[in-house]
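Forwarding these from the shared drive since the link keeps breaking.
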Amino acid sequence: MNEKNCPVCGSHSIVCNEVKENIDEAFGGRKTISVKEYMCEDCESEGDFFDENEECLKTTIAALKDVAVTNILDDFSNTPMSFSSMERALELPQRTLTKWKNNASRPSSTGIALLKLLRTFPWLIEVAEHKYDYAVAQKIHIADAVQQMMNHMDFNSDTIARTGVISTNKTESIRVQSSNADQASTLNIEKRTTEVKIMVGEVSRVCS
């Protein structure tokens, strides 16, 4: 009989409990698995004493990473840029992305990290197309940030009375309220909505 002992104190008085654990993977979703947790009743040590959860964790994480790769490549398929164009920009071997998508080969951990970065910051592909020129990369980054800001600004709404929020009120002026509790004053910048839009458009033009 192979009786299990506590690896800390050697006691036979150990209790095994099965608990549910959520495994999350960016762009791959979540999966719940059952893992074993031991507790020694003598020294009160806790944990996976016999490494019984390791294989299950590895298998689950690998499966979620495969789902993440599929989801990211499906998203890329819905963009105007083709896989071949992306491969040229990123200097990847021909048909690399297609093979990943068709499960003909699996990306390495580095490849998965690259896909996640490109999915999070799609403008990095444009940076790669410009051979990672720093000045051009800065312009691309700023242009994307301005566009994101514009997408989240409502130029027709009332001023949002919440600390740290930039919005427009009915007189079309911009109010910036300090997030510092010691500086309760509100800074009013008199810029009409049309002027703000022109300014942002100019930034986008310069960065293009």
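-- next protein --
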Amino acid sequence: MGNSKSKKKGSSRSVKSAGSKSSNSGAADAARASSSSAEGKQSGKKKSRPSIVAQKKVTLEDFELLTTVGKGSFGKVLQVKYKEDSKIYAMKVLKKAQVIKRKQYDHTMAERRILEEIEHPFIVSLRFAFQTTNKLYMVFDFFNGGELFHYLSTGGRFSADRAQFYAAEIAAGLGHLHSLGIIYRDLKPENLILDSEGHIKITDFGLSKEDVQGEHDVKSFCGTPEYLAPEVLKRQPYGKVVDWWSYGTLVYEMIHGLPPFYNRNREKMYRAILQEKLKFPEHMSLDARDFLGQLLNRDPRARLGFNGVEEIKAHPYFSKIQWDALLRKELTPPYQPEVADEHDTSNIDETFTNMPAAVTMTPADQQRLRNAGNAEQDFGGFTYQVDNVLDGQAYHVSMAEEDLEEELAGMDLGEE
């Protein structure tokens, strides 16, 4: 994980580190307790995905804290070194009290659970998770190539080939999530990190949803304003295809420099998402225009991707992409970040790196919290470790269901 430099001035984007969106992660079956976890589930038993849980437990004392690389309303993200093998990781530290106060328990546990079960070349993987009385800790591989947001906000739009390459790796990652019944719901440049070679890593699963199969399985509304699909703004039940709208918005932004319906006034932007005709800049290729036109179709059933990722991969926009080679990471990225070594934090905002890399100590092996209400809710099943070691972090304000509902309720979006 990592946070990169710079923000677009005057935009609605703002810092979202260890939790300004919804925070992270969940654990196995113990987390499925609340009412929202029932939403979208199919009848019968869920098929569990394979995961590797090591027997050995880790604590904060097993890591050397090096540098702060992100900060948010729930906690912070630190670059750390695992003492046992000296490998560098990113440690996300979440305050339990803030997670409970912001009603993000279910989202936090869901992300933790999702990340435990995923291994993919373009998706961040969870390596360790543990907790003390007051805090949750999640440890990922440290990727220091910088966020896509950093490069878009400092260098402007990408070349056509660079945008296409990133779009292909992101599509492969989203397709994998969808194959597991997971919708991501927060695709944006801040949640996409480059590794040292220039490959994409999708990170931050705080708004993701499990057990989604049908097109109307999900009834909760959350995401980042610039990337919200029309059906979300209309507060209609939806399925995985909402991710392909956000994906189309992101690809447009990579090619052009701004999302297609962007406006600093959110109400006007929402109206544009619902009603305005999609316009293309002159420099955009015909294949890209057709590709984006189909992705940004307001009818979910007619949207490219409704029938799965294969129809996206088959579009002429990707005619140059060799998908098998892409998944093996055999294609050379069009841009290689300037990274000295695994300790390098030069692509991370100095606002964070100048902060002390410290955690208020609590006894590492204290008993987990019992159901005592308020901030003392038990995060049972959170602790986790994989056997062999192989992660990302992030800026656009992500909005959880309660916040988005409140904002939309006060707006006249001119819906028919």
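The chain has a mean pLDDT of 79. The two ends are 43 Å apart (CA to CA).

- D.
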